[in-house]
Automatic annotation (TrEMBL):
It comes from the Eukaryota. One of its GO terms (cellular component) is membrane. It is a single-pass membrane protein. The keyword Cell inner membrane does not apply. Residues 35-72 form a coiled coil. It is found in: Membrane. Keywords: Coiled coil, Membrane, Transmembrane, Transmembrane helix. InterPro entries: CC167 (IPR028194). The keyword Nucleotide-binding does not apply. The chain crosses the membrane at residues 74-94. Pfam families: CCDC-167. This is Coiled-coil domain-containing protein 167. Its main location: membrane.
Length: 98
C-alpha cells in the first residue's frame, strides 16, 4: 500500500487479504481432515495453519483500526458541515431575510 491510498482503499486491500487468508485456512483444514497424511505432513500443515491464523488475526486487527479511523474522519467531516450550516444560519439571521 502506498502512502497516497485512502482509508477505503486500504480497507479494501485488507478485506481482500482476509478473504484469501480465510480461503487458505479452509483448504488447510480440509487437508488435515484426510487420514492419508503422514505425521510429518500433518505437523507441517498444522504449523502452516497456525501461521495463517496469525496473519488472519493481524489483518482483522488492522481492519478494525482502519474502520475506527474511517469513522473518525466521517465525524470530523460531519462536524465541519454542521459548523458551516451554523455559520450560514447565523449570517442569515443577522444580515439577511429568512
Amino acid at each position: 500500500m502506498t502512502r497516497n491510498d485512502t482509508i477505503i482503499t486500504k480497507m479494501e486491500h485488507v478485506e481482500e487479504s482476509l478473504k484469501d487468508t480465510l480461503y487458505r485456512v479452509e483448504v488447510i483444514e480440509r487437508k488435515l481432515k484426510t487420514k492419508l497424511l503422514t505425521t510429518e505432513n500433518r505437523e507441517k500443515l498444522e504449523n502452516e495453519l497456525e501461521e495463517v491464523k496469525e496473519v488472519l488475526r493481524r489483518n482483522e486487527k488492522e481492519l478494525q483500526n482502519l474502520r475506527k479511523e474511517n469513522s473518525k474522519s466521517f465525524m470530523i467531516a460531519a462536524c465541519l458541515v454542521f459548523v458551516c450550516f451554523l455559520i450560514y444560519g447565523t449570517y442569515l439571521l443577522i444580515f439577511g431575510n429568512i
